[in-house]
């Protein structure tokens, strides 16, 4: 068992004013793939380095596999790491690079050969074992770094933006590979990225960090569907979640949300507080777009039309606010045209304009 339990971790670097991590508590289950995601500078690397034992917290504790390791040096924590600047040795062949950690531990030669062979197979490096790093592509070099990390059979795998040196296509390919490999190994993994798409695709759960604090933790689609606040809704997703001011209204015994001079049905969980101002959050793909008016539709005007291949992304003006709407690829419309929008009320999320926290978090 190698679950990780982080309790109230605070770390402020000398000479800085605000803490890099500000009272972070998190649990990573045994065998889980947890992604730490958030904008640059939010404390991801600092948190990972505290788990690794490369940074000492000012207060709080780190437990791995039921053991308090807060005071334990990195090499005794039973973990392996892959970092952004994957240091593989240029003067060593792939085989020696992968075997490096095992050789350091004086593992018997036959055992090293067996494990290196297995790791190479898993990472499709078998045919490259006798090459030098300079004779490999970027993606292959990255795979060597991962092979070296997994070959030691550590209880915990820590990765800090391991794909950020790869170009977009390779990133996508390798992301899929990584998911397959880590799934097979079942190693408890903490993975850091600033890329929200990577986080959504890789994590069993994701923890969204903001300014040294955990904004939300949960399964990717749950966090994506029901962001705890406007920051999370805006950070996850491309395009980000739309936010609009609205007013709670009653009509015919039903709760409605007035947006501009029209209104739409409110989600059941909103409750009944006519007159309240709320911020409505809605994802582009949850807005249905029509070229004619109808019941429960909001009137808008198209500003920009951007085909993305699989869909058409419309930027529309709704009551003076810009909104992103995803239309089917067959939808034909030009800028300046009127459109009408409909939203399933259960896809709407409502936030308190005062502090942007969710009024309703429903699945
Ligand atoms: N060695 C350091 N000395 C001083 N400040 C640091 C150091 N490392 C990181 N920081 C600061 O701590 C905050 C969190 O940094 P970091 O954990 O690297 O964020 P992330 O990995 O999310 O980009 C940032 O404000 C950063 O400038
Ligand atoms: Mg970082």
From TrEMBL:
Cite the PROSITE patterns for this sequence.
ABC_TRANSPORTER_1, ABC_TRANSPORTER_2
Enumerate the Pfam families for this protein.
Answer: ABC_tran (PF00005), TOBE_2 (PF08402)
InterPro entries xrefs? AAA+_ATPase, ABC_transporter-like_ATP-bd, ABC_transporter-like_CS, ABC_transpr_MalK-like, ABC_transpr_MalK/UgpC-like, Mo/tungstate-bd_C_term_dom, NA-bd_OB-fold, P-loop_NTPase
Known Gene3D superfamilies for this protein?
2.40.50.100, Nucleic acid-binding proteins, P-loop containing nucleotide triphosphate hydrolases
CDD domains listed in its UniProt record: ABC_MalK_N
Q: Which UniProt keywords apply?
A: ATP-binding, Nucleotide-binding, Transport
SUPFAM superfamilies per record = MOP-like, P-loop containing nucleoside triphosphate hydrolases
ABC transporter domain residues: 4-236
Listed GO molecular functions? ATP binding
The identity of this protein, by name, is: Sugar ABC transporter ATP-binding protein
What organism does the record attribute this protein to?
Answer: Plantactinospora endophytica
């Amino acid at each position: 068992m190698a679950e990780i339990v982080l309790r109230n971790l605070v770390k402020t670097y000398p000479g800085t004013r605000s803490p890099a991590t500000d009272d972070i508590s998190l649990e990573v289950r045994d065998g889980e793939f947890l992604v730490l995601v958030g904008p640059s500078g939010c404390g991801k690397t600092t948190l990972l380095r505290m788990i690794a034992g490369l940074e000492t917290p000012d207060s709080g504790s780190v437990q791995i596999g039921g053991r308090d390791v807060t005071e334990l040096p990195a090499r005794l924590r039973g973990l392996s790491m892959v970092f952004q600047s994957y240091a593989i040795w240029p003067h060593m062949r792939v085989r020696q690079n992968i075997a490096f950690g095992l050789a350091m531990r004086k593992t018997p030669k036959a055992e090293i050969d067996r494990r290196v062979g297995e790791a190479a197979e898993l990472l499709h490096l078998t045919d490259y074992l006798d090459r030098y790093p300079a004779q490999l592509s970027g993606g292959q070099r990255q795979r060597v770094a991962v092979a070296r990390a997994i070959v030691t059979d550590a209880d915990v795998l820590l990765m800090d933006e391991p794909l950020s040196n790869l170009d977009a296509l390779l990133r996508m390919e390798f992301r899929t590979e990584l998911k397959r490999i880590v799934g097979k190994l079942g190693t408890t993994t903490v993975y850091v990225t600033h890329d929200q798409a990577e986080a959504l695709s890789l994590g069993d759960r994701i923890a969204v960090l903001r300014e040294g604090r955990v904004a939300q933790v949960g399964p990717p689609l749950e966090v994506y569907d029901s962001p705890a606040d406007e920051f999370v809704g805006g950070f996850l997703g491309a395009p980000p979640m739309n936010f609009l001011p609205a007013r709670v209204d009653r009509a015919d015994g039903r709760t409605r949300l007035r947006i501009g001079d029209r209104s739409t049905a409110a989600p059941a969980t909103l409750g009944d507080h006519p007159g309240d101002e709320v911020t409505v959050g809605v994802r582009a793909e949850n807005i249905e777009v029509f070229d004619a008016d109808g019941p429960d539709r909001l009137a808008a005007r198209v500003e920009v039309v951007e085909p993305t291949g699989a869909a058409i992304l419309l930027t529309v003006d709704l009551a003076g606010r810009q909104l992103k709407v995803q239309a089917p690829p067959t939808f034909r419309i030009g800028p300046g045209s009127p459109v009408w929008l409909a939203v399933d009320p259960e896809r709407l999320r409502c936030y308190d304009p005062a502090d942007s926290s969710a009024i309703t978090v429903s699945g």
